[in-house]
Description:
54% of the residues lie in helices and 11% in strands. The protein has 377 residues and is of the alpha/beta class.
Amino acid sequence: MEREAQANAPTLYVGLDVHKDSVDVATAEPGADGEVRHVGSTKGDVASVLKPIRRLISAGHRPLVVYEAGSCGFVLYRALTAAGIACEVIAPSSIARAPGEHIKTDRLDAMMLARKRRAGELSAVRVPDERDEAIRDLTRAREDAIREQRNARHRLKALLLRNGIRYEGKSSWTAAHLRWLASLKLPLPAQQIAFQEYLHAITESEARIGRLEAALLDTLGTWALAPIVAALQTLRGVQLIAAITLVAEIQDFQRFAHPRQLMSYLGLVPSEHSSGARRRQGAITKAGNRAERRILVEIAHHYQHPARLTPIIARRQAGHDKVITDIAWNAQTRLCARYRRLCARHLTRTKVIVAIARELVGFIWDIARRVPITPAA
């Protein structure tokens, strides 16, 4: 009877302003004129947060808990849902703030979340499965390692440039370039130590990238989304690590009803500032994940060459449905031709590549939604 009474009770909106060491709790009663009040503050651990919410349940309320996505992740969400408490994690980008609002406290933020959720003004993010999040953590660790490697390379080159040392070869970081670096000897011992430390940072980051990629390959076999990873590799330029990164960040392609929604989610659509009859579009919005955009731009460079089914692509397409391979071939013929047309209009190379990357997202969306997924046990 108590459960039935609680199920029939009106929803009480509970806003949490979550920090590592503290959480502020506020409630908004249903109805436009319902009271919004600050319940109190508690410690940041899950057990402490559950106490005031369970008191609300004991008082006969049916809480809907909302908190802003942030550095504390989804631990609180999973604990609340496991306890049978409805919870939503709110996208920070959906929280509008008034221009004249100059006072911001944890108490006011919790009350604002409860009030705005009651009004239906907030958008919830998709909370990934724990296994999916683990794969995503691996891909992000790899991105961090790549960023550190790139920074170490820049620092080493800057050191050599300051000392008037230039590499005359064609390409940097090839085997020939690394042999040249190994043979260098700077004039002063202190400079040589700095040089060796920068070089050691580069080799260490390379080893770290290798370890993380090996870990990704080891976990791929038990990942429920592995079929999508395999299907995306039928596309030109989409190799294994790139496919894993794309799927790990997006995960659920079914939540995008149209490819334009995915393009917007990845920040590849142009910004716009229009008024009246005047329409003005600017640079891409760059919303969403930076690593996803970088990978898509890298893939887009492959479409500057004429369409061709190379032996490598043919091996990656072996065993896939004809529908998938047809989409991959259509993507190649269309994008290669579009690259040439855009170049003929004398657009900058950057704009051409971004346009190709944006349209490539549509083919990725089409392939991913056609792949049946078996839920992990």
